[in-house]
Amino acid sequence: MFNDIAGKYDFLNHFLSLGIDKGWRKKAIKEIQKVQPRQILDVATGTGDLAIAAMAANPEKITGIDIADQMLEVGRKKIAEKNLAGTITLQNGDSAALPFANDSFDAVMCAYGVRNFEHLEAGLKEMCRVMRPGGKLAVLEFSHPTRFPVKQLFRFYSRYILPALGKIVSRHSRAYTYLPESVEAFPEGERLVKILTQCGFKSAKARPLTFGITTLYTATK
After folding, report:
1. How far apart are CA 115 and CA 119, in angstroms?
2. pLDDT by residue (tens digit) across 80-115?
């Protein structure tokens, strides 16, 4: 599915979020900057938007992994155009079996990919394993606003407007109905905080952003 929409993925991300997604990524990067990371891992990197944003942390190396090869190809072109290939490397990899040694990274991050893990706990445990003690985790995921009228407006937008626009632009009948369905099934907020703790992370926190449309999860090891 993600391979099929790779060519339109960036445009739709920015268009359907009204560009707010860029600010969400900046907030995630500010969190990992607190540990002055030299080595950063971006899990489910997709087209590399978060990896590119992480250049603001001035790392030595950023590694992005994803299982969708077409998404990675789009990301590599963007990275080459920005002359960042010396710092950012994208490779095919499975979140449930990360091809890295224990304690390899100062920071591990993921934007809107955790809810797509086939095995959530396995993926989170792997992210914890490859992060060094004292390292920083930053995860962005969609969530549900709870306040009126944002709750009602967001529900209508995600169920009707977003799938319709996504289908027209991407020409994929399933991709943008999958998004609200996956958000609905995802264990957000304090439920995910508890799961992060069970997977080995410490000081896990959930910080709602933009009325709770998205949530920034942070933790240490």
Report:
1. 9
2. 999 999 999 999 999 999 999 999 999 999 999 999
Q: In whole numbers, what is the pLDDT of the chain averaged over residues?
A: 89
Count Cβ atoms within 10 A of the Cβ of residue 48 and give its class: 0-12 exposed, 13-18 middle, 19 or more buried. Answer: buried
Domain segments of the chain: what residues? Answer: 6-220
CATH fold group of domain 6-220 = Rossmann fold (3.40.50)
Query: Could you tell me which residues come within 8 angstroms of residue 208 by beta carbon, excluding any fewer than 6 positions away?
Result: 143, 189, 214, 215
* Helix ranges restricted to H, the chain: 6-16, 20-32, 49-53, 69-81, 120-130, 150-156, 162-170, 175-185, 190-198
Nearest Cα to Cα of residue 141 among 172, 177, 182 = 182
Residue 7 has pLDDT above 60, yes or no: no
Inform me whether the pLDDT recorded for 130 exceeds 90: yes
